[in-house]
From TrEMBL:
The lineage of its organism: Bacteria, Bacillati, Actinomycetota, Actinomycetes, Propionibacteriales. This is Thiolase family protein. Keywords: Acyltransferase, Transferase. Pfam families: Thiolase_C, Thiolase_N. The active site is at C94 (acyl-thioester intermediate), H347 (proton acceptor), C378 (proton acceptor). Belongs to the thiolase-like superfamily. Thiolase family. NCBIfam families: AcCoA-C-Actrans. One of its GO terms (molecular function) is acetyl-CoA C-acyltransferase activity. GO terms for cellular component: cytoplasm. Residues 8-258 form the Thiolase N-terminal domain. Residues 267-390 form the Thiolase C-terminal domain. Coiled coil: none annotated.
C-alpha cells in the first residue's frame, strides 16, 4: 500500500488569559482551564462536527492531580466531546503544546487523523516546577547532567557567561520592550481575540471573570529592572523582570488536513512547513533554539533570510538574545515578537507553544506579505524546539 503525505494546517488557536501563580486562578482547577479552551474551539468553528475530531493531545509538565489521569482523554470527556473521540497526554516540559501539535500533525500527514485538538496546560500555582520529581541519582553521580542545570534560572546565568556580549542591560532593555509591545498589542486589540474568558471563584472575593493576562507590567522601566534582585546568583544578571514568571494557563489549537479544512469550509491560518527538536548541554538549555532552528530550516530548504516573522518564547531574555545574535538579528528587529512575549504575558510551561502560534497567525494576518514564520522555544534539560509555518493567506508578494 502506498501513501501520500497530506498538508497540515492550523485552523484556529485559543488560550486562557494567563495568571500569576496564586493569582486569578488560585482556586481554579487546571483541567477546567484547558476544557474551556476546547469548548471555545468548537464554539468558534461550528462547521466542525465534534465527531470528526480524531485525537486530542494535551500537554502538561506535571502530570498529577488535576493535570494527571491522561489529561487529553479526561479533558475531552469533560468538554463534552463524543465518547468515541480519544485523547492522551504529552510531556516535553516547556515545549509540551508545541510537541502536541507536531506529533498529531505527523498523524494527520500520515493519514491516521483528519482533525485533531492539540494544546497544553500548566497551573504552576497548583503544581510548582519540579513537584514530585525523582531524578535518577546516576544523572548527577555520573555527571550526565550538571546538577545546577535542573534549575532553569541557573542555565540562564550560564548563557550570560557563555555570551558576555549579552549584558544585563541588553536583557533588561529587551524585557522593557516586551512589556511595551504587549501593552501596545492589547491597546490595538490584537491579543484579545485569542483569549477565552474564564469564570473564577475565590473563597474570599466570590465569583470573577478573568479576561486579561495578569502577569503584564506595562510600567516596567530600565530603572525599575535595575533595582531587582538576581535570585539565581549573587550579582547575577537574571531577575524576575527579564525572565518569564511562574504562571497558570491553558491553550488549544485545531489542526487538520488541508483537504479536510476545504471540505468543512474552514479557513486555515497557517500551513505546517517543517519542525525539529534538538538536544544540547542541559546547562545551556536556553541556546536550544539555535540548533533546532538550523535543523528545521534545513529540512524546509529555507534560510533564516526567508523568515518574515518570529515568535520566540521568552523564558529568559538572554535566551532570545542568544538566538538573535547567532543569526545577526537586531535585538529590536520588528519581525521578532512584535506583540510582546512571555516576559510580559507569562509562560505556563506546557501551554505556551500555542500562544506562540496564535501570535504568529496574528503577524501573518496583519501583513499578508509575510510568507514564512517560526515558532521556537527552549526546553528544560537542554533541548530546542522549532516549527516553521507558512502564511495560508500569503498574498504572493516577497518582503
Ligand atoms: C525569576 C523568579 C525566581 C522570580 O520569582 P518571584 O520572586 O516569585 O517573582 P515576583 O513576581 O514575586 O517578582 C519578584 C520581585 O520583582 C518585582 N518585579 C517583577 N517583575 C518586575 C518588573 N517587570 N518591573 C518591576 N518589578 C518587577 C516584583 O514586584 C517583586 O517585587 P517584591 O519582591 O518587592 O514584591 C521566577 O519568576 C522564575 O523562576 N522564573 C523563571 C521560570 C522558569 O524557569 N520557567 C521555565 C523556563 S525554561
Amino acid at each position: 500500500m502506498s501513501r501520500q503525505l497530506r498538508d497540515v494546517v492550523f485552523v484556529d488557536g485559543v488560550r486562557t488569559p494567563f495568571g500569576r501563580s496564586k493569582g486569578q486562578y488560585a482556586e481554579t482547577r487546571a483541567d477546567d482551564l484547558v476544557i474551556k479552551c476546547m469548548r471555545e474551539l468548537l464554539r468558534r468553528n461550528p462547521n466542525l462536527p465534534p465527531e470528526r475530531i480524531d485525537e486530542v493531545a494535551i500537554a502538561a509538565t506535571t502530570q498529577i492531580g488535576d493535570q494527571g489521569l491522561t489529561i487529553g482523554r479526561t479533558a475531552g470527556i469533560l468538554a463534552g466531546l463524543p465518547t468515541t473521540v480519544p485523547g492522551y497526554a504529552i510531556d516535553r516540559m516547556c515545549a509540551g503544546a508545541l510537541t502536541a501539535v507536531t506529533t498529531t500533525a505527523g498523524g494527520i500527514a500520515f493519514g491516521a487523523y483528519d482533525v485533531v485538538i492539540a494544546g497544553g496546560v500548566e497551573h504552576m500555582g497548583r503544581h510548582p516546577m519540579g513537584e514530585g520529581v525523582d531524578p535518577n541519582p546516576r544523572i548527577v553521580a555520573e555527571k550526565l547532567v550538571n546538577p545546577e542545570a535542573l534549575f532553569m534560572g541557573n542555565t540562564a546565568e550560564n548563557l550570560h557567561d557563555r555570551f558576555p556580549a549579552i549584558t544585563k542591560e541588553r536583557a533588561d532593555a529587551y524585557a522593557v520592550r516586551s512589556q511595551q509591545k504587549a501593552a501596545a498589542a492589547y491597546e490595538a486589540g490584537i491579543i484579545q481575540p485569542d483569549l477565552v474568558p474564564i469564570a473564577t471563584r475565590s473563597a474570599e472575593e466570590g465569583w470573577g471573570l478573568a479576561t486579561t493576562d495578569e502577569p503584564m507590567r506595562p510600567q516596567t522601566t530600565m530603572e525599575s529592572l535595575a533595582a531587582l534582585k538576581t535570585p539565581f546568583r549573587s550579582h547575577g544578571r537574571v531577575t524576575a523582570g527579564n525572565a518569564a514568571g511562574i504562571n497558570d494557563g491553558a491553550t488549544a489549537a485545531l489542526l487538520m488536513a488541508a483537504e479536510v479544512a476545504e471540505e468543512l469550509g474552514l479557513e486555515p491560518k497557517m500551513k505546517l512547513v517543517s519542525y525539529a527538536y534538538v538536544g544540547i548541554e542541559a546547562e545551556f538549555m536556553g541556546a536550544g533554539p539555535i540548533p533546532s532552528t538550523e535543523k528545521a530550516l534545513a529540512q524546509a530548504g529555507l534560510t533564516i533570510d526567508d523568515i518574515d516573522a518570529f515568535e520566540i518564547n521568552e523564558a529568559f531574555a538572554v535566551q532570545v538574545l542568544s538566538l538573535l545574535d547567532h543569526y545577526g538579528i537586531a535585538d529590536d528587529d520588528a519581525r521578532v515578537n512584535p506583540f510582546g512575549g512571555a516576559i510580559a504575558f507569562g509562560h505556563p510551561l506546557a501551554s505556551s507553544g500555542v500562544r506562540l502560534m496564535n501570535q504568529l497567525a496574528a503577524q501573518f494576518k496583519q501583513d499578508p506579505a509575510k510568507r514564512y514564520g517560526i515558532t521556537t522555544m527552549c526546553v528544560g534539560l537542554g533541548q530546542g524546539a522549532t516549527v516553521i509555518w507558512e502564511n495560508a493567506n500569503w498574498n504572493g508578494e516577497s518582503k
